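Format notes (please read before filing issues)

Several people have asked whether sequences and structure tokens are stored in separate files. They are not. Every record keeps both together, in the order shown below: the sequence lines, then the token lines. Line labels are part of the format and must not be stripped during preprocessing.
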Amino acid sequence: MNRTAPRLAAAVFALVTIAVPTVASAHPGHEGAGFVHGLLHPLGGLDHILAMVAVGLFAARLGGRALWLVPASFVTAMGIAGVIGMTGFALPHVEAGIALSILVLGAAIAFETTMPVAAAVALVAFFAVFHGYAHGAEMPETMSGLAYGGGFLAATAALHAAGIGLGLLIGRGSALVSRRVLQIGGGAAALAGVALLAGAM
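Then the structure lines:
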């Protein structure tokens, strides 16, 4: 097995783990503008962080082409939905959709759900619509949509990378330990999704 990918993912995960708390601590009030504001936006909510990391974990667990196609489809759909959100178009049940994304992805990880890559891509792209719309709709009118969008897409990709790195690191342990860790982590995310969904209803 090529060890370069796990080592690279581990390095990315370590950097993101160090950077995210530092950047997130500057989140109150959304100081800054444009790209920086967009970069901070996904880091200011636990719901977004859980979902983005879960996408990376899900992709790592599926492996193969899913390792890059799943996060790429999320980022692409999120960008499109972000533009729609910036236009003022009304999308119903956004918070419920975000909460459901955490519940479903967490459960998929915990229960070791397998599916074709195309199905996984469609699933995460569907949920990305709600996350992207929320980011776009919350963009201040005084900011550049292009810079702001680039910021929240970059933050999303970094969180996906963290999830992938974490998933690959977990996978390097014994099969039993890896399975238990993913079950616990996925289950915790699913429970958080249930709580968020209850609050959104």
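For reference, the curators noted about this record: Residues 7-32 have pLDDT under 50 and may be disordered. Residues 56 and 160 are 4 Å apart (CA to CA).
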